[in-house]
Amino acid sequence: EAGVAQSPRYKIIEKRQSVAFWCNPISGHATLYWYQQILGQGPKLLIQFQNNGVVDDSQLPKDRFSAERLKGVDSTLKIQPAKLEDSAVYLCASSLDGGSGSIYEQYFGPGTRLTVT
Amino acid sequence: AQKVTQAQTEISVVEKEDVTLDCVYETRDTTYYLFWYKQPPSGELVFLIRRNSFDEQNEISGRYSWNFQKSTSSFNFTITASQVVDSAVYFCALSEYNFNKFYFGSGTKLNVKP
């Protein structure tokens, strides 16, 4: 079974430029997550989708970050304009839809390492 | 306040020693799940275990074991007879079902020396 795919793996941009990351979850996984992991810290959830609807985006800096999940499969996370503090690894994860009372484990992609100079 | 606290930033042990990684969580949700993930130097997070709030049974999987205690809001992870390949950062995580929230701890870096 194919895992979570992410691209690109690495990206270097200058501040104020824009960047986009792509994620393809595991087939059949209804829930998709985007995380930001700054070096030496735990992942911070940016946004969670269930199919193509947003479940939680409370920690997404909406003035510069946006995400979409068209057709409930692939997802794109965009930063515009980027700041120096956005330098981090951006992780995508997916999980099964647990239904009533259940939450399943997440499977993570390899991440995109973003460097903003 | 931290929802998931991993007080041990870094632990170093010698191969074959046992080691316990601590995790303390905070939630008001009545239904929640706890997880442990491993992040080796390669960077990809690997799922280890999932436990729901209604199941306090401890679990053993090979050299790994987990101790869930609701009374102390802890979900500790023990590696028995550690090996060099266990060297990684280990994260504890909390998912709140009714509040639709998910939190990772800050991680514990485990160094296992030969």
Could you explain the architecture of this structure?
The complex is a heterodimer of chains A (117) and B (114). Chain A has no helices and eleven strands. By secondary structure, chain A is mostly beta strands. In chain A, the strands form two sheets. In chain A, strands 2, 4, 5, 6, 9, 10 and 11 form a seven-stranded mixed beta sheet that branches. A four-stranded antiparallel beta sheet of chain A has the order 1-3-8-7, with no helix packed on it. The mean pLDDT of chain A is 93. Chain B is mainly beta and 114 residues long. Helix content of chain B is 0%, strand content 54%. Chain B has strands spanning 4-5, 10-14, 19-21, 24-25, 32-39, 46-52, 59-61, 64-69, 74-79, 88-96, 101-104, 108-113. In chain B, strands 2, 5, 6, 10, 11 and 12 form a six-stranded mixed beta sheet that branches. The termini of chain B are far apart. The A-B interface holds A 33, 35, 41-45, 48, 55-56, 89, 91, 93, 101-111 and B 4, 31, 33, 35, 37, 43-47, 50, 52, 91, 95, 97, 100-107.
